[in-house]
Design a protein that fits this description.
The protein has helices spanning 31-38, 71-74, and strands at residues 22-28, 47-55, 60-68, 81-84. The protein has 87 residues and is α+β, with helices and mostly antiparallel strands. It has a four-stranded mixed β-sheet with strand order 2-3-1-4, covered by helices on one side.
Length: 87
């Protein structure tokens, strides 16, 4: 099981340019959805789980993502990707 404590921290969404080394993330409207999603994440070498909570114009959001040690070694910086949950 992943460290769900990271969802307790207020942290804005990644900006999507790769400078923060976050290459993939998903956004959820409830903490429970984010926690459930975390259960299925499998990390590779040089990857770690990041995330937190913040707000947008609709309300509270939680996000979970993968941060890599080196974006250049990971692949194309233009391939940074995000997803909003479809719940």
């Amino acid at each position: 099981m992943q460290d769900e404590d990271l969802l307790s921290h207020e942290l804005g969404l990644p900006e999507g340019h790769g400078h923060d080394r976050v290459v993939q993330w998903h956004v959820f409207r409830s903490r429970e959805q984010a926690e459930k999603f975390m259960e299925g994440i499998r990390l590779g070498e040089g990857q770690c789980l990041v995330g937190g909570h913040t707000r947008d114009s609709v309300g509270a959001i939680w996000w979970v993502g993968v941060q890599v040690d080196d974006v250049t070694a990971w692949g194309n910086g233009q391939a940074v990707n995000k997803h909003a949950a479809s719940y």
